[in-house]
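Worked example 4.2. Below are the chains of a multi-component assembly; read each line carefully before continuing.
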Amino acid sequence: MTDKMHIKLKVNGEDKEFLAEPRELLIYALREKLNITGPHVGCETSHCGACTVTLDGKSVKSCTMFVAQANGAEITTIEGIGEPDALHVLQESFREHHGLQCGFCTPGMITRATKLLEENPNPTEEEVRFGMAGNICRCTGYQNIVKSILSAASEINAAKEAAQ
Amino acid sequence: MIPAAFDYYRPNNMDEVIALLQEHGDDARVMAGGHSLIPMMKLRMAEVPHLIDLQSIEGLNAIEVKDGQITLGAMVTQHDLIDHDGIAAAAPILREAALQIADPQVRYMGTIGGNVANGDPGNDMPGVMQCLDAQINLVGPDGPRTVAARDYYEAAYMTDRADDEVLVSVSLSAPTGGYAYEKQKRKIGDYATAAAAVQITNSEGKVASASIAMTNLSDVPVWSEEAGAALVGTSCDTDALGAAVAAMLGDIDPSEDNRGPVAFKRHVAGVILKRAVTRAWDRA
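Applying the procedure described above to all two chains together yields the following structure tokens:
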């Protein structure tokens, strides 16, 4: 066993410090050291996207990153997107359009979708499917996930126009 | 999944990286985005007692496009490449290939350097770099040296790079003419069953030059000089396509795996090459 490292992260706006072995995967540091259990462990092989977080502005699969690599990074998880009584537009839209059934993939889906809409605020259906290709859902058949994201995009754009 | 324990280093300059590699020999490895190495470490198919993370080394993530010359730093991610307007204009085949690698999350982390350096036959960029006749720039204890991508790959995961050398960039002349990277895969995130990189130039309706490389159809990427030569002087008609495919099939050596038996892979390779040449010729 190697020495533990002093890790500093900023997660959902809060500074966090803890000791961890460098080999610990970021997803386990988030879930077990910091009790941030929104990002899920799905396949643990970089395929399913349930562990997706935003790290320094990139959507990443936190099962495929050592906590040592993430040291110093700023991270947003589903816990940093909306509040139970003030949902994010995407969360509201997933609820409205039945973008989830069991809900296991949803934190990863919504975290990825926030970044997708940030980079491409007005995507076509094809662009949504391509941009969400790293997230797997076994319930919905994706139709309603795509619908939810497209609807959230129009809502965000309409709000922006109204504000101008 | 818990990989074997390791000491972690995040040096700021290449001298430190080389010193660590010399000190620890086989026990040390550099890591770029980690999206090939970490899965192998999680499966304990790779054990790396000393892991050297390249993320803090300055200059490794630069993309330069100047006077028809392109240089891609080793830490340039597939996402950076897709997002770069200069690359889209100067070498659109790079963008077309990068878009077919894995999925968005993986493309934010996966790098050109890792993809090219690793020597995994499934990686897409080695074939693209052979098609484009790119140069691979290495740095080691004796300073920098350059190897042609067409001479770099020796066997699966075996390359011309010495253990104490690091791939720092890839450079190439901006290609001219039509291009295509055509890839058949079973699902998003899978390696190619077969893929083809093609660059073609057109002079008054005839092929003036053609370069063809194939991915995941041997234990190394396959630049098929004869397949390209079979197209030169033709108008890419059915006979010429057939001759190029026949030449390519003489150069590949696929093995059976869960993507299918050898006969199937050879069939798919032919289909993919025809599609790639046809699309590249349309754009030439």
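Take a moment to check your reading of the output against the notes. The helical segments of chain A are 26-33, 67-70, 89-96, 106-119, 125-131, 143-163. The first strand of chain A starts at residue 5 and ends at 11.
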